[in-house]
Amino acid sequence: MTRRRAWLENVLALVAVVLVWEVIARLVNARFPVVPAPSAIGAAGAQAGQPIWLNLRLTLIEASIGLVAGSGAGLLLAVAFVAWPRMEATLYNLVVTIHSVPLVAVAPILLIWFGVGITAPAVVAALACFFPMVVSATRGFRAASPSALDLMRVLDASRTQSLLRVRLPASLPFIITALKIGAPASVLGATVGEWLGTAGIGYLLFSSMANFQVPLLWATMLVAAAVAAVGYLAFAGIEQVAVGWRGQGEA
Description:
With 251 residues, the chain is mostly helical. The protein has two domains: 1-35; 39-250, MetI-like (MetI-like fold, Orthogonal Bundle), CATH 1.10.3720.10. It has helices at 2-28, 38-47, 49-83, 85-100, 103-114, 119-142, 146-154, 159-193, 201-210, 214-250. The protein starts with a helix and ends with a helix.
C-alpha cells in the first residue's frame, strides 16, 4: 500500500510539473521563446514519430552492444585484479586516466578510426560502462567472506572454484549496481558517439539543434532520457529480485 501511494504521489507530482510548465511556457514564450511548452514538444514528437523511432532503434542497438562489451571487459579486468593484485597496482591508474578523458573528446577520434557506422558509438558506450564495472566488481569480489574463502582453501579448491562459488555470489549486488549505472551511461555514450555521425538519437539531437527545431530537440532529448531511465529501472528490478534471493538464502 505504501509503495502504491509513493508511486501515485510521484505521478501526481510529475503531472503538476507538466501543468505548471505548460502554463509558464504559454505566458513567457511569447516574449522569450526559450523552452517550448509540453504540448508543443508532444506535437513535435508525434509528427516526427517514425524518424525518432528509427534513430532510437539504432541507438538501442549501439547502447546494448556497449553495455555488454564494456561491462564484460570490466568484469574480466576485475577478476584479473583480484587474482593478481600486482596487475591492479600497475593498471588501475591507467584505467582511471582513460575514464577521466571526456567522451566528447574521444568520439571524434573513434569516428576517424572506425568511420561512420555503428562501431564508434558502440565503443563510446562501452567506455562509459567499463569503469563503473571495474570498480564495483573489484570491490564485490573482495567482499567475499574470509571464512568461506578459508574453507575453500581447506577443501583444496582451485581459484576458479573459489571465484564461482564464493566471490561471484558475494559480488552480485556490486555487479548489478554497476549495471544500473552502466545502462543509462551506455545510452549517453552511444548518443555522444552519434553526434558526428549520420544516424541515431545523437545525430537527430545535433540535426534538430543545428536547424533550430527546438520542440523536436526537446522531444528527442526526453525520449533518450526515458530510455535511459527504463534501463536503470530494469536493473533496479533485477537487483530487488537478487537481493531477495540472497536474503532467503541467508535466512
